[in-house]
């Protein structure tokens, strides 16, 4: 015990210090590395008036939007431009959502559950209800369709239909909030009677004038000197005209990895060997799938829908014959005629899909499908049955209707349905078994019968070989190594006659650049580099790119370097106006003004206060306004007027009555207010957006590859 006591006495302080350090370390770990720590990475993709959009939520919304787009495009692949458009669409929807929600909250705009119910079940259903629950035959709202959808939702064990109905309720709520907001704005628009009377008076007469115009062109630009300080002051005094978004400008040279003659010969040699096998294979579909760059379509296409090089020669070859090789972009191709037949180029069907799902076994699904087939053959309306029983959410609201073409997209798992649509006869009814259930199909229409062809395409891509690509990469690397600043970059481009291109107005969230395609890595570099920096070599699909950052513009007011020509022209015009006005001083008469400037006295008739365009002069609103200045009237000449094209001195010779057609104030008011309401509908949100505090951090989460 005495030993233990000695340890306690000797090391007590040290032990306490160690414990304290451990506690502090534990606390600091949360400060520096915890979820809310000062060094943790932000997950905020952007903010609108303080409301954050987490980048994971942003990605989720993008995914939802992309899936919707694929459905609209019938499963087609989304290109780089499509994906970029969707990213911006989702971001803009978030901005609108936050801005308008804040407006609704500030004004106390709400939509109750009872109001939503009335919009659906009341005497005057919401337009969204009318749009989504109409009879496909008549286009008229049918409440029984809505009732059947609700019943299907109650029986749907997956909960998907119920979730869709909740989403639909939310859409109605949002529609009503926006309607209330717009109604409030519209109610604030008013056309007073005094304004009507004033405008009527302004239009009640025109002026005939004499004028002297001293064009700015009478003074040579070379005689007017301007300084950068004057130009920058003009920009600051007119900031609204020079507001610009953030952007970058990259000038670049591209070293293309184009296939050489040897590359083309190698691809052709390989294709010729495969052609011999194509002539003898019993499984053409499997052979094409395994060896061709073009997929095998195991169906027929009408002559008009086939679009390939050498089409006229290919379409007339006998069955079993091979045409080619021919070139199709960067492919070399053999085309083999597999079969010919006569078939329609368009077919319409109605279908009822019965899915095998929990609670409905395969045998039960088949029994339901067979019962529906019997009912339809007995005269039952397939459209009504589809609305009630079909598990296909894409077509049930239209009575299960689809319009098909031989080469058009249709879900691959429904290929048997498509085959029946074109191989059966109009009016035929059939139950088709699918891996996921059963489909009862009725062919309702077939038209434009003609020749249809089944063709197999054996294609090989002619790509640059590794040797060719390495040579192009070597040239790009040599260029980047030898030209590491903008001055030498420009000099080498000129000396070697390289084709320099420009990518301008690059935004932080650009993924695609004109002429380069998918180029996110270049965009990311441009926003990290300094002006004048030369990039490393960027590897794109078939080229190697070296760029130099020649412009880095921040959001706000445009720098003088970008707007110098326009600003110089305006400042010089102002200085010319000052010189002309100093020369004119205060002319006592119009003739004195003409004498002082050696310009003729001209005339203009029918000058209107309401219309600033003067036939003999052009668009000169200050001149039009001055003609009706009561201080001058018809007694004396005006002071010098700085116009758009020159300096003017005018004298009104007479005012001429301009009779206006009698117009009822109520009609004037209605027309004026309607015009302002339309303007508000178009511009109101943009005005709210301009006043909002929007921070866009999305580019942080999308670096280059």
From TrEMBL:
Family (UniProt): Belongs to the PpiD chaperone family.
Transmembrane regions: 12-33
GO MF annotation: an example: peptidyl-prolyl cis-trans isomerase activity
Gene3D superfamilies xrefs: 3.10.50.40
GO cellular component: plasma membrane
Highest classification ranks of the organism: Bacteria, Pseudomonadati, Bacteroidota, Chitinophagia, Chitinophagales
InterPro entries: PPIase_dom_sf, PPIase_PpiC, PpiD_chaperone, Trigger_fact/SurA_dom_sf
Subcellular location: Cell inner membrane
Domain PpiC: 344-445
Protein name: Periplasmic chaperone PpiD
Residues of the signal peptide: none
Keywords: Cell inner membrane, Cell membrane, Chaperone, Isomerase, Membrane, Rotamase, Transmembrane, Transmembrane helix
Topology term for the membrane: Single-pass type II membrane protein
Any Pfam family matching the protein: Rotamase_3
Keyword Transmembrane in record: yes
Taxonomy, superkingdom: Bacteria
Originating species: Chitinophaga niabensis
């Amino acid at each position: 015990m005495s030993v233990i006591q000695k340890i306690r006495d000797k090391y007590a302080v040290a032990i306490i210090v160690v414990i304290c350090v451990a506690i502090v370390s534990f606390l600091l770990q949360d400060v520096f590395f915890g979820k809310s720590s000062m060094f943790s990475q932000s997950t905020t993709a952007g903010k609108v008036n303080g409301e954050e959009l987490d980048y994971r939520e942003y990605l989720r919304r993008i995914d939802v939007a992309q899936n919707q787009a694929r459905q609209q495009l019938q499963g087609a692949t989304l290109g780089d431009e499509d994906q970029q458009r969707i990213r911006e669409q989702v971001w803009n929807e978030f901005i609108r959502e936050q801005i308008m929600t804040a407006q609704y909250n500030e004004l106390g705009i709400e939509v109750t559950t009872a109001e939503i119910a009335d919009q659906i079940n009341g005497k005057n259903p919401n337009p969204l209800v009318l749009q989504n629950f109409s009879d496909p035959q008549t286009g008229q709202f049918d409440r029984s369709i809505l009732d059947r959808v609700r019943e299907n939702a109650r029986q749907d064990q997956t909960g998907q239909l119920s979730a869709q109905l909740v989403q639909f309720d939310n859409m109605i709520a949002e529609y009503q909030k926006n309607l209330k907001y717009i109604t409030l704005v519209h109610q604030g628009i008013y056309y007073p009677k005094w304004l009507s009377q004033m405008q009527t008076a302004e239009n009640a007469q025109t002026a005939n004038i004499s004028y002297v115009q001293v064009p700015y062109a009478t003074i040579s630009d070379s005689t007017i000197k301007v300084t950068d300080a004057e130009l920058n002051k003009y920009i600051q005094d007119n900031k609204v005209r020079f507001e610009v978004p953030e952007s970058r400008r990259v000038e670049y040279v591209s070293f293309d990895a184009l296939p050489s003659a040897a590359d083309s010969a190698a691809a052709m040699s390989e294709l010729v060997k495969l052609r011999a096998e194509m002539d003898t294979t019993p499984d053409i579909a499997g052979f094409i799938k395994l060896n061709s760059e073009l997929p095998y379509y195991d169906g027929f296409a009408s002559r008009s829908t086939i679009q390939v090089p050498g089409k006229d020669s290919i379409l007339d070859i006998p069955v079993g014959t091979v045409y080619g090789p021919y070139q199709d972009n960067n492919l070399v191709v053999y085309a083999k005629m597999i079969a010919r037949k006569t078939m329609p180029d368009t077919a319409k069907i109605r279908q009822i899909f019965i899915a095998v799902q929990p609670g409905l076994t395969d045998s039960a699904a088949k029994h339901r499908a067979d019962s529906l087939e019997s009912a339809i053959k007995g005269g039952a309306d397939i459209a009504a049955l589809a609305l009630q029983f079909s598990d296909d959410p894409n077509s049930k609201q239209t009575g299960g209707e689809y319009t098909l073409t031989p080469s058009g997209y249709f879900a691959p798992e429904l290929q048997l349905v498509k085959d029946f649509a074109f191989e059966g006869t109009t009016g035929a009814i059939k139950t088709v078994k699918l891996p996921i259930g059963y489909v009862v199909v009725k062919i309702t229409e077939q038209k434009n019968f003609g020749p249809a062809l089944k063709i197999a395409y054996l294609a090989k891509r002619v790509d640059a070989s590794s040797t060719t690509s390495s040579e192009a990469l070597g040239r790009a690397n040599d260029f980047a190594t030898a030209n590491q600043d903008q001055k030498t970059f420009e000099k080498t481009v000129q000396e070697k006659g390289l084709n320099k291109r420009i990518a301008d107005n690059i935004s932080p969230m650009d993924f695609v650049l004109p002429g380069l395609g998918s180029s996110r890595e270049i965009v990311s570099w441009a926003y990290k580099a300094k002006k004048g920096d030369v990039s490393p070599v960027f590897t794109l699909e078939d080229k190697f790119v070296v760029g130099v950052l020649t412009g880095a513009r921040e959001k706000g007011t445009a720098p003088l370097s970008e707007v110098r020509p326009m600003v110089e022209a305006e400042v010089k015009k102002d200085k010319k106006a000052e010189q002309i006005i100093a020369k004119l001083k205060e002319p006592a008469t119009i003739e004195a003004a003409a004498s002082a400037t050696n310009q003729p006295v001209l005339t203009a008739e029918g000058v209107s206060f309401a219309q600033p365009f003067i036939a003999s002069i052009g668009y000169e609103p200050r001149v039009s306004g001055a003609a009706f200045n009561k201080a001058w009237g018809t007694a004396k000449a005006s002071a010098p007027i700085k116009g758009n094209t020159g300096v003017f001195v005018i004298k009104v010779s007479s005012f001429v009555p301009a009779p206006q057609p009698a117009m009822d104030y109520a009609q004037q008011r209605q027309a004026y207010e309607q015009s302002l309401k339309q303007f508000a509908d178009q511009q109101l949100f943009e005005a709210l957006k301009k006043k909002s505090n929007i921070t866009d951090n999305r580019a942080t989460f999308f670096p280059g590859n």
